[in-house]
């Protein structure tokens, strides 16, 4: 059996590969990357490193050849670009005769109102239409996305919150990645949809965890979307990032990431890591 992971030199894919190497022979593992030289460390371990670029479908034909189980790690970029790239990957998987596709989606993809959810709905639809058995790994929010707020607190800034009392199922990126590895290397995951989420919490609760770990008083300041945007611009963030973050606040308030599910813990075979672990990593504990 040959398992292939796309985006294997990225933050998510690299954790998936490292996890798989603990239980899967390197000879059974392949990776598809845009820049093979960045995966030389994997090649030296016996992993089959292949060139694959979602923007160059002709490279995917060879990258996916002979693959039994494929993990498509969702790409970055604007929605139109990502939808096109994912379609290219799905088409190549079907052409190559891949027998199983795992895909990193987003929480509640079918009804999520976040702008980026459009990308994942399109990808899930494309995969279903191939007839290939699949598993949709609907990841909730990475707690790593809140690094800016945590670092701001360390420098005495308040925790700005435009999401109100909305709950988010934060978990660590490594937990999501290890769950993906479990699906790739395991059995019985055909045609499954996993809502992968940590315990839903509010921003105030996450701020309280940060306060406990850092020993600093953390003041949560509720703001509207416009004020959040002004603060982010004042912090030097590019306009496109500010727009993206502000546009997410409404969907947060609508409950797009409020997911009660134990799927993550079931796949991991253990409790999700406490969010305090990430805060400790930021402050070097």
Word description of this protein:
The protein is globular and about 55 Å long. It contains twelve helices and nine strands. 44% of the residues lie in helices and 14% in strands. The chain starts with a strand and ends with a helix. Strand 2, helix 2 (40-43) and strand 3 (48-51) form a beta-alpha-beta unit. The strands form two sheets. The chain has a seven-stranded parallel beta sheet with strand order 3-2-1-4-5-6-8, with helices on both faces. A two-stranded parallel ribbon has the order 7-9. Helix 1 crosses helix 7 (173-185), helix 8 (203-214) packs across helix 12 (276-283) and helix 9 packs antiparallel against helix 10. The chain has helices at residues 11-20, 40-43, 57-63, 79-96, 117-130, 147-154, 173-185, 203-214, 225-234, 239-253, 263-268, 276-283, and strands at residues 3-6, 29-33, 48-51, 69-72, 100-106, 134-139, 159-161, 192-196, 220-222. The protein is α/β, with parallel strands linked by helices and 285 residues long.
